[in-house]
Write a structure and sequence with these properties.
Blueprint (H helix, E strand, L loop, with lengths): L7 E5 L6 H12 L1 E5 L18 H6 L2 E2 L12 H17 L3 E5 L3 H8 L11 H12 L3 H12 L1 H6 L5 H14 L16 E7 L2 H18 L1 H10 L14 H8 L5 H22 L7 E5 L5 H14 L7
Parallel strand pairs: 1-4, 1-5, 2-3, 2-4, 5-6
Helix pairs in contact: 1-13, 3-4, 5-6, 5-8, 6-8, 9-12, 10-11, 11-12
Length: 317
């Protein structure tokens, strides 16, 4: 007899919308622990720029899948699923509630829907060719446009500057002749979750993003990037291609003024939020959307979780 799916809660939505705060509050109320589903927070020494949970938040609710790797190490969907599923079983075994929180849509949906990792073995020769193309002037954008011709949905979900993921998507298509957005879509088990989506109007969200970037700068974000650069981590590549790390790295190399770096960080984070909405669509019936621009969201979320736990079903609408 197949193993019954484990019930769990997911808090999803764009960056800066308040996912961590709500996840921690729900963990306090229901005896839960957080599974991080932000692809950047798995890296050590990238604390301020990835908006990792504060010490106070970590004290209020245990977090899993944070500070696992050095910034130069690779981390992908397969690694996430393996670690997240192990953590969920451990949390459940101890009588606690798993609460998945994060904005990396590929990770979230693969975990919640029980999807498999695309079986596309690496093609080193093909990848080397693409990496060489990416190094040319305008090469990263050209690769992203090539992906768009093949798979518009996957291209929309990826930043052109995230060359590693763009190349991997092209590699999957090269090996399987399937669109990357359509591979790995066979569910391995029945889903059993409540997905709460946090949203707010675009203008308010962008203002929150801008305020958070300013707060990050006040908290020492530039010093964090300086320490990473001094440790030999190449800014602008891999995990350090994330919004803020790339731009502040360019400032340190004299390519941008500090004001330009901060402004571009805000703009790139706005773009990240828009890409996240391609994974978490407001029209998606799998998500219960809640407006986090006003009051009462904690109480409403508490009601939804309590109702779900009393009789969990595959998807609560």
């Amino acid at each position: 007899m197949p193993e019954s799916p484990l019930p769990h809660i997911a808090i999803v939505g764009p960056t800066a919308v308040g996912k961590t705060a709500l996840a921690v509050e729900l963990c306090q109320r229901f005896g839960g622990e957080v599974i991080n589903a932000d692809s950047r927070q798995v890296y050590k020494n990238m604390d301020i720029g990835t908006a990792k949970p504060t010490a106070a938040e970590l004290e209020r609710a245990p977090h899993h899948l944070i500070d696992l790797l050095e910034p130069f190490e690779q981390f992908g969907l397969g690694s996430f699923l393996s670690l997240a599923e192990t953590a969920i079983h451990d949390i459940t075994r101890r009588g606690k509630l798993p609460v998945v929180a994060g904005g990396t849509g590929q990770y979230v949906w693969a975990l919640l829907e029980g999807k498999s990792v695309p079986e596309a073995p690496p093609d080193p020769e093909f990848r080397a060719t693409l990496e060489a193309e990416a190094e040319a002037d305008g090469g990263a954008q050209a690769l992203h446009e090539r992906l768009r011709q093949i798979d518009p949905d996957r291209a929309d979900a990826l930043d052109a500057r995230n060359v590693r993921r763009v190349i991997r998507a092209l590699e999957i298509y090269h090996v399987t002749r399937q669109k990357p957005s359509e591979t790995g879509n066979s569910a391995t088990k029945t889903s059993n979750y409540l997905a709460l989506g946090l949203t707010m109007d675009r203008k308010t969200l962008y203002r929150r993003i801008d305020d958070r970037v300013d707060a990050m700068m006040d908290a020492g974000f530039l010093s964090e990037v300086e320490r990473l650069a001094e440790a030999g981590y190449p800014t602008g590549k891999g995990a350090l291609a994330s919004p803020g790390y790339r731009e502040l790295g360019q400032y340190l190399m004299g390519e941008l003024s500090l004001a330009e770096a901060i402004s571009r960080t805000k703009t790139q984070t706005h773009r990240l939020a828009r890409r996240q909405y391609t994974w978490f669509k407001l029209s998606d019936p799998r998500i219960v959307w809640l407006d986090n621009s006003g009051l009462g969201i904690v109480e409403r979320s508490t009601e939804l979780v309590r109702a779900y736990l009393s009789e969990p079903s595959p998807v609560v609408q």
